Description:
This protein has 220 residues and is mainly alpha-helical. It has helices at residues 3-24, 42-62, 73-92, 106-130, 137-159, 184-215. α1 (3-24) runs antiparallel to α2. The longest helix is centred in the last third of the chain and has 32 residues, at 184-215. It starts with a helix and ends in a 5-residue tail after the last helix.
Amino acid sequence: MNKRLIFRVVAFVLTGYFAFRTIVMGAYFLDEGRWGGSLMFLSNWNLLINFIMASCALYKEYEPKFNPHNLLLPASMGINIIVVILYWVLRAMGAFGDGTEDGWDIFDHLRNLYVHLGTTIILFIEAIFFNKIFGNLRQEYGGYMVIFISYIIWMEAFVAPNNDEPCGSVSCGFPYLFINDLSVTGRTIFYFGVWMLGNFAWAFSYYLYQYKERNWNSIE
């Protein structure tokens, strides 16, 4: 087995396991019965995307001409950076509320670290070293924006209207407690700020890939 295949098998197993535990079993930051389930959270959207990318990458080992996932890899890189930066910054600011980690064991902390950092590192290794990406910037950025905007619509039009908690000073139902303290204008400003962060994430991913193309060899 070459290094690439070993890496892809490990990536698929890890992402598949944590996606099942986190998304299917719904045992992560969730209260039973909340509309939208595990997919209320952007980090779980990100984990699902990474599982799809890992599945496609492993399939490519057996069908080398399979490349359609390459179009989504740049989008997944941008989403991953957004998730990592937002999660750790907002957590440091206490935006998720107190008591989030009450009752966690060591596995819960390891899972949290994987979902909000480990899966991103693995995705970036796959995208940068084992694929040819950023070949059609318009389509790739378009796919990125489709995911970005879809999650906002998902929260605003479906998740919040169908949930009565958590509640903040302004509204109820948004999966992240601090968003319920924001007015429509406040949320618009917040989304715009995340979009700006997303553009930075996209540009960083692009220049990191270009740097690799100029200076590093692919791992085989």
